[in-house]
Design goal:
three-stranded antiparallel β-sheet, 2 domains, Phytyl_CoA_dOase-like, 354 residues, 37% helix, 20% strand, eight-stranded antiparallel β-sheet, globular, single chain, Jelly Rolls, 2-oxoglutarate-dependent dioxygenase activity, alpha+beta
């Protein structure tokens, strides 16, 4: 027995317990603020992230069980859409594969006509871009049209308002097969909390962190599921989504701190057979729990256009922008689904604007 080492261990344990209590207090205060205002204080979101790290995800698992009780599944979802006419057994198999591996690649693909129209929209519509500097990066409010032959940034982002105002993208947002899979995986009535569309471009190895091109894991909410659709062909050279199989559950202690991880750091803790590059033709659909380690591989040639949806079991966490319904050209179907599945579709729109 070494009394000095024993004292250090005890001090370390007491420090962690004290920090855990502080984070729990901030989290609970944030819950009250969220219930009152519909927004999460930044320090409470940060506390949720720390609780995930301190418990290696067990805190989020427990709170997700609470969400299952508070917000049970819709009994009448008809999961027909891009993924096909899915049976309950189909949904269970897809959810089982995501729970086991962290991701699922659908056998169905988005049709070429929709892809062509979305691609044309992205070619001619101004997008915000990530501006790089020596010390920081930020996404500019100013929008420009993406120039594939002379990019000035590794990533160009369309706003959620632009996305909702596009008919083909709105059809993806309201697809009921996606809703069915999200509900089965989250095991509760899900919340559609964000939609994203962006270009990725080669940029001489710069901006890889700002463009999410280094390994990381997401903690925007307690538990969530993302749907990615490749709108360009994606091979090993032009930005495949990379995912570490099985890393969405417990993580090695050394990799738990939030932040970007190098390929070397990931390779020290996971065998090469578990690190997957998810290449695919345009229209490929990938469904993933991005609490697992993932990245967009830096491009060395070509360009990549990708669409993303996110469903969560609670909006507590990141305060994502909302959509103005008065700017959506054909809003009737959205209104119908808001009435039928209020928890899913009503929380992404700004109901104060009509």
């Amino acid at each position: 027995m070494n009394p000095i080492n024993d004292t250090k261990l005890l001090d370390n344990l007491l420090f962690k317990l004290n920090y855990l209590v502080i984070c729990l207090e901030l989290f609970l205060k944030g819950i009250k603020a969220f219930q009152r205002d519909g927004r999460t204080p930044k320090n409470s979101h940060f506390a949720m992230v720390n609780l995930y790290v301190l418990t290696n995800g067990r805190f989020n698992d427990f709170m997700s069980l609470v969400q299952q009780i508070r917000h049970p599944k819709y009994p009448d979802v008809s999961p027909q859409g891009i993924l096909g006419n899915l049976s309950q057994q189909d949904l269970k198999e897809i959810a089982r594969e995501i729970r086991e591996n962290g991701y699922y690649i659908a056998s169905q693909r988005l049709n070429r006509d929709s892809i062509g129209r979305i691609f044309k929209f992205a070619e001619v519509t101004p997008a915000s871009y990530v501006k790089l500097s020596n010390n920081y990066s930020r996404r500019l409010a100013k929008k420009i049209i993406f120039t594939p032959k002379a990019p000035i940034s590794p990533r160009y982002n369309f706003s959620i308002q632009q996305i909702f105002e596009n008919t083909d993208l709105l059809n993806l947002i309201l697809d009921q097969s996606f809703l069915g899979v999200a509900q089965e995986y989250l095991n509760c009535s899900p919340v559609l909390d964000s939609a994203a569309l962006w270009w990725s471009a080669p940029f001489n190895g710069k901006g890889t962190s700002e463009a999410a091109q280094e390994y990381h894991y997401d903690l925007s909410h307690l538990k969530f599921l993302k749907i990615f659709i490749y709108l360009t062909d994606v091979n090993s050279d032009n930005g495949p989504h990379c995912y570490v199989k099985g890393s969405h559950t417990r993580k090695p202690k050394a990799l738990l701190p939030v932040g970007r991880k190098s390929d070397t750091a990931i390779g020290l803790h996971y065998p090469e057979s578990e690190i997957h590059e998810l290449c695919g033709h345009q229209g490929t659909i990938i469904i993933a729990d991005t609490r697992g380690f993932h990245k967009g591989k830096p491009l060395v040639s070509g360009n990549r256009l990708i669409f993303q949806l996110e469903y969560s079991n609670s909006l507590f966490g990141a305060n994502n922008p909302k959509v103005r319904m008065d700017k959506i050209p054909d809003v009737s179907r959205l209104r119908q689904l808001m009435d039928h599945y209020p928890r899913t579709y009503s929380q992404i729109v700004d109901l104060s604007v009509n």
